[in-house]
Structure formats: structure tokens, C-alpha cells
Amino acid sequence: MLTAEEQSLIQKVWEKTASHRDEIGGESLYRLFTSYPSTKTYFPHFDLSCGSEQIRSHGKKVVAALSTAVKSLDNLSQALSELSSLHAYNLRVDPVNFKLLSQCIQVVLALHLGKEYTPEVHAAFDKFLSAVAAVLSEKYR
Ligand code: HEG
């Protein structure tokens, strides 16, 4: 799991995104749908055009879940348990898609944070997002 250093790095950087976090969610989703069009199949009921109200509002939800995760780095499984059940039993999202979204979130974080998105921050977020993806995938088996 994440080292104590990685945990504090993630908490520090996430704090810095506070004022524009909701946009980060929507931009990551738009990037997901554009770069990996097959992901759109899970959202047939959404208006997927850039900046649509549905993308923005769903982006806020995704980012809020990530904020919960950042607060519970020692206990991700429990913190995201309901969300994990929802994705496995109701939404049935193929777990490969979690990696794709993680990639897009990383790119958007880099765009927002510029030089502050150092290789160390990148590495820590990669581990964090992989841990979130693992929890969201764990109920499929
Ligand atoms: Mg998921 C709903 C979080 C990846 C498809 N997703 C949700 C919700 C949250 C969430 C918080 C709302 C739950 C609720 O209403 O109670 N999603 C979330 C995270 C991540 C993720 C944190 C990964 C980091 N989701 C993900 C991926 C897909 C997907 C990769 C598909 C490509 N999510 C999905 C769909 C819904 C949610 C189809 C329902 C959307 C709706 O109809 O409003």
C-alpha cells in the first residue's frame, strides 16, 4: 500500500486542487469518452458533449468519491464499499475501464498542477488510483 510519505503527498496535492476539483472530474470524464470511445457505452443516457451538465454533475460525484478516498487512505475498502457494490452488481462496469479513467485523471491533474505535478506526485497518484480501482473491482469475483 501507500507509504506514509505518499499518503501525505496525496493529501497535500489534493488540498491544492480544492478550488477547481469539480472541473477536474468533468474534464477527466470528457477526456475518457474522447480518448476511449467504448467507455461511452455505459452512459447512453448522458449528453456527452464537452461541458454538458450531466458530465459536470457526474464529474462532481466522481471527485467527491475520490475526496472520501483521500480521507480514508488506510481504509479504502470500507470507505468505498457501497460504491464498489454499485459498480460490480448494478452498473457492471468492466474493470479495465477504471484504469482508463485513472489515466485521464492523471493527465487532467498534470494540466491543472503544471510543475507541481512532479514525478513523485505522479507516482503517488498512480498508486492511489490503482488502489481505488482495485477496491471498485474487488466484488466482481
Ligand atoms: Mg462510476 C456512478 C464514482 C469509475 C460508470 N461512479 C458513479 C457514482 C460515483 C462514481 C460516486 C455515483 C454513485 C451514486 O449515484 O450513488 N466511478 C466512480 C469512481 C471511479 C468510477 C471514483 C473511478 C475512479 N464509473 C467509473 C468508470 C465507469 C463508470 C470507469 C465506466 C466507464 N459510474 C458509472 C456509471 C454510473 C456511475 C454508468 C451511473 C451514472 C448515472 O447514471 O448517473
**Oligomer category:** single chain
What general form does the structure show? globular
What would CATH call the homologous superfamily?
Globins
| Beta content | under 5%
Any guess at the CATH architecture? Orthogonal Bundle
How many structural domains does the protein architecture include? 1
The overall pLDDT, averaged over residues, is 96
Which structural class best describes the helix and strand composition? mainly alpha
**Small ligands present:** protoporphyrin IX containing MG
Q: Please give the alpha-carbon distance between the first and last residues.
A: 21 Å
Per the CATH scheme, the topology name is Globin-like
Tally the beta strands: 0
Q: Quick one: CATH class?
A: Mainly Alpha
